[in-house]
Amino acid sequence: IKGMGEQFPFQLREKLDFEAKTSYTLRIEAANMHVDPRFLSLGPFSDMTTVKIIVEDVDEPPVFTSRLYSMVVSEAAKVGTIIGTVAAHDPDASNSPVRYSIDRNTDLERYFNIDANSGVITTAKSLDRETNAVHNITVLAMESQNPAQIGRGYVAITILDINDNAPEFAMEYETTVCENAQPGQVIQKISAIDKDDPPNGHQFYFSLTAEAANNQNFTLQDNKDNTATVLTRRNGFRRQEQSVFYLPIYIVDSGSPSLSSTNTLTIRVCDCDADGIAQTCNAEAYILPAGLSTGALIAILACVLTLLVLVLLIVTMRRRKKEPLIFDEERDIRENIVRYDDEGGGEEDTEAFDMAALRNLNIIRDTKIRRDVTPEIQFLSRPTFKSIPDNVIFREFIWERLKEADVDPCAPPYDSLQTYAFEGNGSVAESLSSLDSISSNSDQNYDYLSDWGPRFKRLADMYGTGPDCLYS
């Protein structure tokens, strides 16, 4: 409202509903609260007007008749059983038809279906209360003319229990009986459980099966409080005769119809102390020697086997060492030829071989005798070289090296290549490239060095007599 230069906005106090009321009529009065007394006679200083507010209609989603639907169904219901019905309507004046569906995010296993037109919910699969006792699903209602308008309703389906589970032992019992137990002694108290949930609670009945009712070892007493007691019938239990007993127990529930099951109780015979506490329950204790357990025997056997393996390995290695170094013709013996492109360091290279050995042929060398074979020829002394022709010296030197290789246990195979760097007596090994020869009056011609290529150019310049000689 605008008046006297001021504006007065309207504010909503509650939500409007077009379907409930389409318009509102307001009568508004505006008055001047501060009138100058000099102008009171001109009065009144107020005015009235009428304001009509019209509510516009908007498209709204369908609305369910109830915010939460509660339904029940028996877990014995067959597929297709009707559980209940939901209803929703379009609140708009058009009253568009509504179609129903189930939000599958709330029914992942697809236990239920709903009729799209009537909203009737039915079972789609067999139900199990022990798996899920209550199913909470969401139903969607959509306008036929505008599927974007979706309403949501919530349904809680409770599964009613039926007696479909037989009773069983409440736990895995480890029952023992002492060898010195007396008749009528309590050795175990048992109880039962049932996955079903009857309205009046559980009631179990215990008894021995027909084939075990007349056994001479144990008996069963029903305590009428969902428990039972196992007692001995005799004394003198012996582990070496029988170390384990199996007692079948028959349990019945009070459901309608009642269900039953047979559970087997395992009873072990043990050696007990004075207080009746089990000490040893293994029947092997009578068979094993005193002070030795099963683990100790296993350890002893493992040690014996280990020693046997070691002895076999030692014997095998010794036999291989005693084998003669004679190769069969069938074996494939191949030599590896290694090529070294190394020219050496000239006469300054003294690491490759011992020059003293080449200069003095009379050095006494220790003869190495092979230990695995007996040499055919024993060498008592090393022959002394005298001033004899070079060809004899070479022959003797090579023959000596050959004999040493034959009796050397570390020598390579017989068909290997051995190089003997021996020059013989009278060699000029002490000065292979003496520079003194350049000043000698030698008649030898070294001009052929120029034909050997650039690598020998230096020598050709030093010893040559051609015009390009270094000293020409």
Automatic annotation (TrEMBL):
One of its GO terms (biological process) is homophilic cell adhesion via plasma membrane adhesion molecules. Residues 12-64, 65-169, 169-286 form the Cadherin domain. It is found in: Cell membrane. It is a single-pass type I membrane protein. GO terms for cellular component: adherens junction; catenin complex. This is Cadherin-7. GO terms for molecular function: beta-catenin binding; cadherin binding; calcium ion binding. InterPro entries: Cadherin (IPR039808), Cadherin-like_dom (IPR002126), Cadherin-like_sf (IPR015919), Cadherin_CS (IPR020894), Cadherin_Y-type_LIR (IPR000233), Catenin-bd_sf (IPR027397). The keyword Protein biosynthesis does not apply. The keyword Cell membrane applies. It comes from the Eukaryota. It comes from Nothoprocta perdicaria (Chilean tinamou). Keywords: Calcium, Cell adhesion, Cell membrane, Cleavage on pair of basic residues, Glycoprotein, Membrane, Metal-binding, Repeat, Transmembrane, Transmembrane helix. It holds the Pfam family Cadherin. The chain crosses the membrane at residues 286-315. Gene3D superfamilies: Cadherins, TCF3-CBD (Catenin binding domain). Cadherins are calcium-dependent cell adhesion proteins.
